[in-house]
Design brief:
By secondary structure, this protein is α/β, with parallel strands linked by helices. The chain contains 19 helices and 30 strands. It has 2 domains: 386 residues, TIM Barrel, CATH 3.20.20.80; 81 residues, Sandwich (Immunoglobulin-like). Bound molecules: zinc ion.
């Protein structure tokens, strides 16, 4: 096993760097003959590119393209390129993850003869972007092919295996607050396995009011977890210290167990280091209504489900792969600072950018400013890692009781309320944490609950329960019209399915739908929009803010408070506003604060009137010693 301090803030500095010949080819396939900056994609696999990434950006775990899922006769040059690149990165002391596309493959050459494709209840293959189809996680031919890739990647020098897209077959789509289409794979192998194990037939309509459907969704995610366990065991049998990681796609802001078959808590147990990809690169938009995109919701709702000491990293997009230009430095730094404040790392997005003309990488010469900024913050985080390592637990007086399975099962009813409450407190500068175990209530004074079934048994008497579902300013959505009309729902499913197939198969239809911003319907979450002011007030009025350490500011500031080993407090402050602002920090009288920051001189402050005025640029940590 690895040394557990390898995967800590400041020590673990990963980057997505899909490059080399395979990525050039994949970009052209996925984005229908888009222009690609081929030089910069080749250079990232050579010494000059490696030196820039390792020395200047100061990354030490490089996610390199190994297998995009092209047939071997095409892909073998990618495997060789991976081996050459790995050698260059190893020379510089960095380690390498081999990227393995796990749930789909390119439909060309020898792969056209394979019988391993996932199929719909009507016997059609399932698209994964363009030119690719989903494969079946019960098909032995496919599993054995993945094992071959793992073995070959390790023999070519991989230090870690990174499984991408743990998605099992067909994904239902949300429209008009209902789930359209089937979920999973309906090939003979899947149908037989399901029948053998449960004695039932696989449901094809995702009516979540039915127990047989919920049982099926559980079965699908458990089956995929078993396969990933099997593949990881295989990798470890070849190389005992191999590091296993995966793209644990967006497990908080969307109901991934239902859509993809992802059960994050069980997958996290298998991985040495977890990685969440999502569309949450921090951004504060003072539009009407106001939008606060952030990773705080994702991280705080994920960490309680992680096994002890297991590290999390996040990688966030703005509009998405193939749409985003390289982000301005300030946004990248806000993402890195936010992650550190929350006790995790940000995986640098080094690849799959589109600059308006062509696909490019963060390593291209025109992004020198971003490269320097990332390198500087990495050095700062490494120099200050002892701060993070001494932190023992998050402290907050407000807790959100996680609804558990009812959250994904009643997504259209519970999720909007759940996230509206969390966004309200985040934007108001009030620390909070997610409670998944009602014995874990230390320091909690207000517990917010989301449905009447959520009644913890023995509650400390000083705890106040806030029933968010009873707020007069909130209207819970009723069941969808289509849930009561299965015939119409089937017709709607057909239409949606045809649109999606058209998007992937037809270039002019894709252009039209991109122009209409339709892909954002799938990628973007509505939950970053702040709820109406009336709702925010109703919630905030129920919270006793006496003696609560919090921030008062014009623009939102993340505050995350952690206890350290000697019972002192670390107050992390991250500015969501793109410019400096002067903020008020409410803290106990007579405190002595040491404020450290990557962009300002360290200062010591004596607090005389329960308020500290601070100029916050990007990120400050206030150390408050226990007296
Ligand atoms: Zn199948």
């Amino acid at each position: 096993m690895h040394n557990s301090t390898d995967f800590r803030i400041g020590n673990y500095r990963p980057i997505y760097l899909w490059a080399g010949p395979g990525t050039i080819r994949m970009n052209k396939l996925k984005f229908m003959q888009v222009d690609v900056d081929e030089n910069v994609h080749q250079e990232a696999h050579q010494f000059t590119g490696a030196a820039l990434v390792v020395n200047d950006l100061y990354q030490n775990w490089i996610h390199l393209t190994y297998s995009w899922g092209f047939p071997p006769e095409i892909e073998q040059e990618d495997w060789q390129s991976f081996e050459n690149a790995t050698c260059e990165y190893h020379k510089l002391g960095a380690k390498v993850f081999a990227y393995i596309q796990s749930s789909n493959c390119v439909y060309s050459g020898s792969f056209k003869d394979k019988n391993w494709y996932a199929i719909t209840p009507k016997g059609k293959k399932v698209y994964y972007y363009t030119g690719r189809y989903m494969t079946c996680f019960q098909n032995n031919g496919w599993i054995n092919y993945l094992k071959e890739r793992i073995q070959d990647a390790i023999s070519r020098g991989a230090d870690g295996i990174f499984f991408d897209n743990l998605w099992y077959g067909l994904q239902p789509n949300a429209l008009f607050r209902t789930w359209l289409g089937a979920a999973g794979c309906y090939c003979t192998a899947c149908q037989e396995k399901y029948y053998q194990e449960t004695g039932k037939r696989m449901p094809t309509l995702m009516d979540l009011q039915k127990k047989e459907v919920l049982d099926y969704i559980e079965w699908r995610s458990q089956s995929m977890t078993q396969v990933i366990q099997q593949l990881s065991d295989f990798a470890r049998s070849l190389k005992s210290d191999v590091i296993i990681s995966a793209n644990d796609y967006d497990p908080v802001m969307r109901p991934v167990k239902l859509i993809f078959g992802i059960d994050f808590p069980s997958l996290a147990k298998i991985q040495d280091v977890t990685m969440i990809e999502n569309f949450a690169l921090p951004k504060w938009e003072e539009s009407q209504p106001k939008i606060l995109v952030n990773n705080t919701l994702t991280v705080r709702n994920t960490q309680p489900y992680l096994p002890h000491q297991k590290h999390l990293s996040v990688l966030s997009y703005d509009a998405g792969i193939g749409f985003d230009p390289v982000y301005p430095s300030r946004r990248i730094l806000t993402g890195m600072a936010e992650a550190a404040a929350l006790g995790c790392s940000m995986t640098t997005k080094g690849t799959e950018y589109h600059d308006g003309k062509k696909m490019t990488l963060l390593t291209a010469p025109e992004y020198g400013e971003q490269q320097k900024a990332i390198g500087n913050l990495h050095h700062w985080l490494q120099d200050h890692q002892s701060i993070y390592q001494s932190q023992t637990k998050r402290v907050a007086s407000v807790g959100f009781l996680h609804p558990g399975d009812p959250l994904w099962q009643n997504w259209f009813q519970i999720a909007p309320l759940y996230f509206a409450c969390q966004q309200t407190l985040l934007a108001a500068g009030i620390p909070w944490r997610t409670i998944t175990d009602d014995k874990d209530l230390d320091e909690i004074r207000h517990l917010i609950v989301f449905e009447n079934l959520q009644q913890p048994e023995k509650l400390p008497h000083e705890l106040s329960i806030i029933k968010a579902y009873e707020f007069s300013s909130w209207k819970t959505f009723s069941q969808s019209f289509f849930d009561h009309h299965p015939g119409l729902k089937n017709i709607l499913s057909e239409i949606a399915d045809n649109l999606i197939r058209g998007y992937h198969a037809n270039k002019s239809l894709r252009k039209l739908m991109d122009w209409m911003g339709m892909s954002k319907l799938v990628t973007h979450t509505p939950f970053f929009t702040l709820p109406p002011q009336e709702f925010q007030n109703e919630l905030l009025n129920k919270i006793d803010l006496q003696k609560v350490i919090r921030v008062i500011s014009e623009h939102p500031v993340l505050i995350d408070v952690w206890k350290n080993k000697s019972d002192g407090l670390h107050i992390h402050l991250v500015n969501y506003h793109a410019q400096k602002q002067v903020i008020k920090l409410k803290i106990p009288d007579n405190s002595i604060l040491t404020v450290i920051s990557p962009d300002q001189q360290t200062q010591e402050m004596q607090i005389t009137s329960d308020t500290a005025m601070l100029e916050l640029d990007l990120y400050s940590i206030c150390l408050l010693e226990n007296k």
